[in-house]
């Protein structure tokens, strides 16, 4: 019974970690898109 509980907790932490890293990747991607857009605006003004 203890093994089942430990395995369930481990799976919960692993899945939570995956979602966290997925969200972090999306945040970094959107920040990169913002920088790219700003750079494009500056380039268009020059």
TrEMBL record:
<comment type="similarity">
    <text>Belongs to the EcnA/EcnB lipoprotein family.</text>
</comment>
<keyword id="KW-0732">Signal</keyword>
<keyword id="KW-0564">Palmitate</keyword>
<dbReference type="InterPro" id="IPR012556">
    <property type="entry name" value="Entericidin"/>
</dbReference>
<dbReference type="Pfam" id="PF08085">
    <property type="entry name" value="Entericidin"/>
</dbReference>
<dbReference type="GO" id="GO:0016020">
    <property type="term" value="C:membrane"/>
</dbReference>
<keyword id="KW-0449">Lipoprotein</keyword>
<keyword id="KW-0472">Membrane</keyword>
<protein>
    <submittedName>
        <fullName>Entericidin, EcnA/B family protein</fullName>
    </submittedName>
</protein>
<dbReference type="GO" id="GO:0009636">
    <property type="term" value="P:response to toxic substance"/>
</dbReference>
<keyword id="KW-1003">Cell membrane</keyword>
């Amino acid at each position: 019974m203890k093994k089942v509980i430990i395995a369930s907790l481990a799976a919960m932490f692993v899945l939570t970690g995956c979602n966290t890293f997925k969200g972090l990747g999306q945040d970094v991607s959107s920040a990169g898109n913002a920088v790219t857009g700003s750079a494009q605006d500056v380039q268009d003004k020059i």
